[in-house]
Amino acid sequence: MRAGIKWMFLIIGTTIGAGYASGRELWQFFGHESGLAILLFAMFFSLSCGVIMSLSFKKQSVHYLPVLRIIVGKRMTGIYDVMIFLYLFTTTVVMIAGSGATGQAFNFPYWWGIGIMLMALIALFMKDINGLLSINQFILPPLLGGLVYVLLLFTIDQELELFSHWREQRNWTAAFPFTALNILPLIAVLGAVGNKVKSKKEIWVACIGSGFLLGIISYIYNNSLIQIADELLLYEIPLFAILQHYPVQMIIFISILLWFAIFTTAASGILGIVTRIQSYVNKPLWLIVVVTLVTMIPLTALGFSTLVSYLYPIYGILNLYVLTRLLLFPLWYKQT
């Protein structure tokens, strides 16, 4: 159970980043009439993670390529290898830009937030992969607890009905691109730790637990955002539209948690990138991290909300093939 929870935190830490924790990603895909979509997302997410981790464990992989080759087939492996690399690169840029946007909320210069994120990522990978696993177990419990607390408090204060529109579910198809968007980085991250998983019990604790928790949080979060839909245009980070109703101390506390959510996802993205590069270049992990981060800095000038608005829907659609292969994996894999 303890090992399974460790992997569950890695999965959630990879998923809850600047896009998700800020509310921007949820609002981009869900919004009104999305309760069924979120339920389907939780189910698809758990199943997909289970397939990825099982393959990673079976192959005892140290980077994502062996797992990717089985999921998409030999012919498509080269295409999706490039796509995963570009996805991880650009979404890590989004996380770094999200750090800058979080700093701006407190009137700090945009580049200060970016600089702090870069230094923290370099320091983390001085301890190799173990640093990431340790920090996830330390950060994610208060992060999830704080986020759920704020969302439930907002729900109670505003007297919101959690299931008032359950019969209106025309946006159920959003479950597919949203799950697809979040699955691709997990192939990269979980494919890099296959040699560290010890049993299949760990896998199912991690996958069912992460899908269940993300489903509940996503539903409550989305329901809260619906109530303030008119105000969201004024905020680069939608979570701050909710926090404006509360004292500044709570805003500071949640902003710190939000920054750590951004940090853990950026770290997971960097892990997927550098382990893949290391299969070609025999250099220390921290050195590859430094070079990778330096190349990302110019792209952060595009801004957080702009990057999310354009990149995430594109990747959600492009990754639908991978999601289909994962959901149908038990059927087609037995025939190969």
Notes on the protein architecture:
It comes from Oceanobacillus jordanicus. This is Membrane protein YkvI. Keywords: Membrane, Transmembrane, Transmembrane helix. With 336 residues, this protein is an all-alpha fold. It has one domain: Orthogonal Bundle (Hydantoin permease). The chain contains 16 helices and no strands. The protein is globular. The mean pLDDT is 82.
Task: List the topology elements.
Blueprint: H1 2-15, H2 18-21, H3 24-29, H4 35-59, H5 65-72, H6 74-104, H7 110-124, H8 128-157, H9 175-190, H10 200-227, H11 239-243, H12 248-278, H13 285-296, H14 304-318, H15 320-327, H16 329-333
Compute the separation of the termini in Å.
33 Å
Low-confidence stretches: none
Order of helices and strands: HHHHHHHHHHHHHHHH
Could you say how many structural domains there are in total? 1
- Strand composition percent: under 5%
Tally of contiguous helical segments: 16
Radius of gyration: 19 Å
Taken from the alpha-carbon principal axes, the silhouette is: globular
Key traits:
single chain; 336 residues; mainly alpha; Hydantoin permease; 75% helix; globular
Question: Would you kindly provide a brief summary of this structure?
Answer:
The protein is mainly alpha-helical and 336 residues long.
